């Protein structure tokens, strides 16, 4: 079935396909902890499987028996699937992401995008962030970073309404925080610090932004700056385990640094050995 009338849904699914009475496995998503994101009608094209998946909700598992007309038809799919074969699918839906509006949005011209209502822009940006989150948790940090930045590009519009601008800024704040963490994972602490500071410009008392900035400075061995950010974060969330552990790590690094400095000073000022 080359054409699917279903919306552009992205889904992560664990699946196993069998022939006969569950006795011959012909396809599987494997044992991957992070199954790849697939689109209905593009990556998943079996008519019966599409219908089945659209009847499911996130977290649901199901068994489907697909007659040939809903599977591989009269021709089958040699050599794995004989002609006119009924197949069985065991599936579990891990997540759904509707990409239809995103796909449509990026096909518009810049002028058309600018004329869209804010609610539409915010929804598209939120979906792009969901895609970024999916790839982040799959540990595909470069792809996640690109999706977060794509979402930011959508939110470049300025608004004369304070209420609308607050909505835009709230969406941007989440993306700045996500980008800061993603750049830490990519081992680019300077960029992580940049996005952490952008988050702080929108919310000076954001403990997570302060924490990210502290982490970035610690990676860059800027211990004084790191301590400033982390202590400010601790004042806001004194019982946050991650913040307190980072402060302990900072104290350990500072101690090690001071010991190295002390050794270097001793070597520099140690009296020269005298000769006979």
UniProtKB/TrEMBL annotation:
Gene Ontology CC annotations of this record: cytoplasm
Catalytic reaction list: [protein]-peptidylproline (omega=180) = [protein]-peptidylproline (omega=0)
Pfam families in the record: FKBP_C
This protein's record includes keyword Calcium: no
GO process annotations (BP): piRNA processing; spermatogenesis
InterPro entries listed in its UniProt record: FKBP6/shu, PPIase_dom_sf, PPIase_FKBP_dom, TPR-like_helical_dom_sf, TPR_rpt
Domain of life according to the entry: Eukaryota
Similarity comment: family membership: Belongs to the FKBP6 family.
Protein's name according to its UniProt entry: peptidylprolyl isomerase
Gene name per UniProt: Fkbp6
């Amino acid at each position: 079935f080359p054409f699917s009338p279903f919306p552009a849904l992205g889904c992560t699914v664990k699946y196993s396909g069998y022939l006969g009475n569950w006795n011959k496995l012909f396809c599987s998503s494997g044992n991957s902890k992070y199954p790849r994101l697939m689109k209905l009608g593009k990556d998943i094209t079996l008519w019966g499987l599409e219908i089945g998946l659209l009847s499911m909700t996130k977290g649901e598992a199901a068994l489907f028996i697909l007659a040939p007309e809903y599977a591989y038809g009269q021709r089958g799919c040699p050599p794995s699937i004989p002609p006119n074969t009924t197949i069985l699918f065991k599936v579990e839906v891990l997540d759904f992401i509707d990409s239809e509006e995103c796909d449509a949005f990026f096909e518009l011209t810049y002028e058309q995008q600018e004329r869209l209502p804010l609610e539409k822009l915010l929804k598209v940006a939120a979906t792009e962030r969901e895609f970024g989150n999916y790839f982040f948790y799959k540990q595909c940090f470069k792809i996640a970073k690109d999706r977060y930045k794509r979402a930011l590009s959508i939110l470049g519009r300025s608004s004369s309404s304070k209420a609308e601008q607050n909505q835009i800024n709230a969406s941007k704040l989440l993306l700045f925080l996500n980008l800061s963490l993603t750049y830490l994972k990519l081992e680019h602490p300077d960029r992580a610090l940049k996005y952490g500071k952008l988050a702080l410009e929108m919310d000076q008392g954001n403990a997570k932004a302060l924490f990210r900035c502290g982490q970035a400075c610690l990676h860059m061995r800027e211990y004084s700056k790191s301590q400033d950010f982390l202590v400010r974060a601790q004042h806001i969330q004194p019982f946050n385990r991650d913040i307190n552990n980072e402060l302990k790590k900072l104290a350990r690094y500072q101690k090690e640094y001071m010991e190295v400095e002390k050794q270097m000073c001793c070597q520099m000022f140690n009296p020269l050995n005298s000769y006979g």
